[in-house]
Amino acid sequence: AGSQLREIFDKINNLLSGKSVQSGGRTVSVTQHPQGLDFVHYKLAEKFVNQGEEEVASHHEAAFPIAVVASGIWEIHPRVGDLILAHLHKKCPYSVPFYPAFKDGTSLEDYQRMLGYQVKDSKIEQQDNFLKRMSGMIRLYAAIIQLRWPYGNRQGTHPHGLNHGWRWLAQMLNMEPLADVTATLLFDFLEVCGNALMKQYQVQFWKMMLLIREDYFPRIEAITSSGQMGSLMRFKQFLEKCLQQKEIPLPKGSLQPSFWRS
Fold it and tell me: Which family does it belong to (predicted)?
């Protein structure tokens, strides 16, 4: 509910502002240790990204309440925003977007880790689990760039707004696609913030969508094996439907004004 989200936001904001906060039956304050604030900045940013990786990966609609709190905290405490990006880029290089190249002397395990895979006891995680985690983080990012905390003073611009989403999309289309990954993440990204980008960029946005269909989609198709067709077909259906209806629907779970009255 909106009221619960406000409580969570106020608690985090109070903690970062140096006030005393109740946590786990104890009273804590960042002033209790010289590095207290640095530590909290770092851990909080890490937790936001973990929620993308775990919570949003399993429940897509969770992206919106988590993102609106992250965005609001970012606006008041920019250091947290910098660290959210740092954690996000490290765990999910596709959020930059960046595809790390294999360098001589790098072990295969280290390279897999650079690509975002979890490696435990020399075992690399399953592809579907990897894609699920990457999707969660991209969806969280796509939600953050379009949402603002509704109770802020709203004087300035969004600390990391839709222009970053436009840039992300343009950079993705300037890179050679990767089988499975590119189709999955483009779909995730556009499903979450396509509606907001459409409203902001209008004609330019539809030119971009046409470019994806006419030019970029065939390039993804060319490198996709028969076992990887699922993500590609889902992305194709989404593209066709949006271009046909000249509309990208509001994402499921987006926060309507009534939410804040709950």
Answer: Belongs to the GLE1 family.
